[in-house]
Amino acid sequence: MTLLAVERMKLFTTRSPWWCAVITLLLVIGFAALMTATSDGGFVSVGMSQSGHFFGITVILVLAALAITTEYRFGTIRTTFQAVPNRTAVLLAKTGVVGALAAAVGLLAAFGALGVTALLSSGVDLSLSTGAEWRQVAGNGLVYGLAAVLALAVGILVRHSAGAIALLLIYIGVVESLTPIIPEIGPTIHEWMPFNVVEKFLSGDGATRAVAEAGPPLSTSTLSPWLALGYFAAVAFAALAAAIAVANRRDA
Amino acid sequence: MIEAKGLTKRYGDTTAVNGLSFTVEPGQVTGFLGPNGAGKSTTMRMILGLDRPTSGTVTVAGKRYHELRHPLRTVGALLDARWVHPNRSAAAHLKWLAKSNDIPQRRVDEVLDIVGLTAVAGKRAGGFSLGMSQRLGIAAALLGDPEILMFDEPVNGLDPEGILWIRRFMHRRAEEGRTVFVSSHLLSEMALTAHELVVVGKGELIAQSSTREFVARATENSVKVRSPHLAEFQPLLTEAGATVRSEDGGVLVSGMDSESIGELAASNGIVLHELSPSQGSLEQAFMRITGDSVEYSSSLGNGTDGGPGGEGGGGPGGAEQQPEPAAAHT
Predict the structure, then answer these.
(1) B78 with B152: CB under 8 angstroms?
(2) A197-246 pLDDT, tens digit each
(3) β-strand partners of B278
(4) What is the per-residue pLDDT for A41?
(5) Domains and CATH numbers, chain B
(6) Confidence band of B252 (pLDDT split at 50, 70, 90)
(7) What tens digit of pLDDT does each residue of B10-69 get?
């Protein structure tokens, strides 16, 4: 508990997490507002209100990577290990705090997006009644949180802010989206890439959309939504376990 | 009390610290002396459990660092004053440190007061001058009221006032019965600060002794002699067993005290214009002892303007040591 409090104090006495949180909210909610304002009423749906979540997750990756790489950059990781030599405990506490912040930002962004969509489109029923609708909105909390865990793991391994962020952004922006164009095996590999899989948890088969085409492409994963989330979580925590093992072995 | 036994650290083919064994006793300031690159910082990082020794052990207060439950209450260390997030305030930096070791938050105000940073407690640490950063680092080291204090090159880049403050500060902590271990590459600084010295070069222990002993053993006494009859006198001195080398306007004689030189001159009817004993500087002493263990010695000094770096490469042959650069044309 003490360590969680320490990591919370460390996180909130710097500026970058605040900036990243604000940018996430602006992007996700702003995107929802833009989509609603420019589409005619028939396309507005719970699913459409969440079209901007990809941008939000991208910024959350940056937030989480910065939370650990700035510690390496400024040497405060050494001050931390000097105060608490149990590195596993320190890094788990940091993961807990950053993951919780990411989850809170994810929830806020998702419900904010839903709210602004409801405000701008009078008369469309946007209440959450089915499991798919709840996953599409509230599920963002879990997905943002787990994405932060994955980004922290990459940050611990790479240690440099620019390197970790570049790696993450290139991965989600280029590697995952270009893999399907590899002949023959590309689509199969893509089926198992974590950010594609977790999309299955959020959007399922597109049941939350008013019109199936009204939104970004759906996940090609064949897993059930909750299995998809489990797979994403397994990837994130496996990366974290590897990162902590490396951090314990190398010199701080 | 800090105890190192056979401490070794290798990075690939490079050996930074090699079989280092020493003890640091409480109640006095112990200097950790060695040229840059001698492995002082690596050793200190191993003491704090930040770097993992390749072999050997080091204990603080009888335990390995990671066995300490609240390490800041046993060991306070300042290895690098820049290990602070620049956007975090001085008080916020100390508060999370205090929290991590269950130290009451009011202790933060106390240590800020001790180092004189109360007025800037709420300011970003990134805007601090080097002296202020050092003070913040010292405040962090004092947080847990530890029995062992460790500082890596604390006076580097400080103005004379800051140097004096740190020196007095360390003496006071030692008088309180604490263990104070401070590294430096300057023997002149250590001679004023430390009672005991652990001297290293190229990662190996060169000496552990009291500062006075080390300085006395290291400094070579020589006598400056000026005379219009130097040409005749020089062979006589050499015959009597002294080492003679020319120096601007005269010669520098070592291995013979001024009394015997004067008597030798008188008995041979030689006029002397000057006969002045001089004690070698601490820097020369240090160079003589660590001479062959300077990691990055330059070859620039082998010409006429022999600087200390170049002379260091000349090896431990103490008598060859040139106290003045101008005398290198032997």
Answers:
(1) yes
(2) 999 999 888 887 877 666 778 888 889 999 999 999 999 999 999 999 99
(3) B222
(4) 64
(5) 2-216+284-328 (3.40.50.300), 220-278 (3.30.70.980)
(6) confident
(7) 998 889 999 999 999 999 999 999 888 889 999 999 999 999 999 999 999 999 999 999
Q: How far is CA A45 from the centre of its chain?
A: 22
Tokens of B295: 């990691």
* Residue type (1 letter), A212: A
Structure tokens at B138: 């010292």
Which residues of chain B does A70 touch, with a Cβ-Cβ cutoff of 8 Å? 85
Nearest by CB to residue B87, choosing from A14, A83, A251, is A14
Q: Is B317 on the interface with A (CB under 8 A)?
A: no
Order across the sheet with B2-11: list the strands: B14-24, B2-11, B55-60
ipTM confidence: 0.87
How much is the pLDDT for B302? Answer: 44
Chain A neighbours among B 126-165 (CB < 8 Å)? Answer: 140
How far from B185 is each of A219, B181, B223, CA to CA, in Å?
A: 62, 14, 28
CB atoms B88 and A14 under 8 Å:
yes
Tokens representing residue A63 in the block:
């937030």
Cα B270 from Cα B214, distance rounded (Å)? 37
Q: Given pLDDT bands bounded at 50, 70 and 90, which one contains residue B310?
A: very low
Quote the mean pLDDT of chain B.
84
Whether B79 and chain A come into contact, CB under 8 Å, resolves to yes
Structural contact between residues A108 and A24, judged by C-beta atoms closer than 8 angstroms: no
- DSSP for A23-87 reads HHHHHHHHHHHHHHHHS-GGG--HHHHTTTHHHHHHHHHHHHHHHHHHHHHHTHHHHHHHH---H
Give the closest residue to B28 by CA, choosing from B178, B142, B165, B164. B178
pTM (predicted TM-score): 0.82
